[in-house]
Amino acid sequence: MNNGMQFLAGLFKMTTGKEMNIGNQKIEIDKETGEVVMRFKLG
């Protein structure tokens, strides 16, 4: 999962020229479906 966040942070930096604050991320797991949801604020 950390590799995925690093990838997204790299894409964000390439498109905006700014660093992405990945400290505000929230990870949720849906127990019914087994899906993992990552939320993070862009900005």
What about the largest sheet? Answer: 2 strands, antiparallel
> How many β-strand runs?
2
**Contiguous runs where pLDDT drops below 50 for at least 5 residues:** none
Overall pLDDT confidence: 79
> Considering DSSP H and I runs of 4 or more, what fraction of the residues is helical?
25-40%
Distance between the termini: 21 Å
Structural class: alpha+beta
Q: How are the strands ordered across the major sheet?
A: 1-2
Number of helices: 1
* Structural shape: elongated
Can you tell me about this structure?
It is a single chain. With 43 residues, this protein is of the alpha+beta class. It has one helix and two strands; from the N terminus they run αββ. It has one helix spanning 2-16, and strands at residues 26-29, 36-39. It is elongated and about 40 Å long.
Give the tags.
43 residues, two-stranded antiparallel ribbon, single chain, 2 strands, alpha+beta
What is this structure, in a nutshell?
The chain is of the alpha+beta class and 43 residues long.
